[in-house]
Amino acid sequence: MIATDLGPLRATALVGALTLALSGCGLFTEPAHKPKAARSPAVAVQQAHGCPPSGVRLGTGPVDGAMGLRAMTLTLTNCSERPYEVKGYPAIRVLDEKGVPLTGVRTVEGTDEVFMAPEDPGATPLTLDPGDSARAGLYWRMAAEDGTYLRVVPQQGREALNVRPAEPLDIGPQNTLGTTAWAPVS
Predict the structure, then answer these.
(1) SS3 110
(2) Which residue stretches of 3-47 are H helix?
(3) Cβ distance 94 to 147 under 8 Å?
(4) How far apart are CA 112 and CA 101, in angstroms?
(5) 175-179 vs 105-109, strand pairing mode
(6) Domains of the chain (ranges plus CATH)?
(7) pLDDT tens across 74-100, in order?
(8) What value does the mean pLDDT take over residues 46-67?
(9) Is 147 helix (H, G, I), strand (E, B) or coil?
(10) How far is CA 95 from CA 61, 134, 163, in A?
(11) How far is CA 11 from CA 15, 16, 17, 18, 21, in A?
(12) Per the confidence metrics, is the pTM higher than 0.85?
């Protein structure tokens, strides 16, 4: 029989577990959204194929969340045959399942008003050649209500595009949605 002293090992394991628990990583996981049953959309969204009349296609990435901060990427792709210019920030409205804007959700340019969000790189003019893409980041703090759709105006004076992210946005009322400026996809 081999005798071992487990005292230091237990203390090390306890310190590691407490560190993970206090940092919000590892031991606690937030409940995942259950996918809703497929149904016809209440809001007109882009078709899955082809290039819409606007000449650009809008897509969303998955929602990434940790410690209450949520992040999602918007991707704007020029699917036309001519250059598409964009500068600044997307204007965004969060819509519910019926296409009604969520009351109290405020969108802002930049990320300063969203606790723990990364710094916004700032706006620069971009010309998207056919096939080129630009990205903007969306950041918000977790809340109780789910937004189902996003209505996005890529730049002031442009046509609004509706998109349904793969996951609901748990942004809720009295919350702020921060956006980064459009940046080229490298």
Answers:
(1) strand
(2) 7-23
(3) yes
(4) 23
(5) parallel
(6) 56-184 (2.60.40)
(7) 999 999 999 999 999 999 999 988 999
(8) 86
(9) strand
(10) 17, 23, 10
(11) 6, 9, 10, 11, 15
(12) no
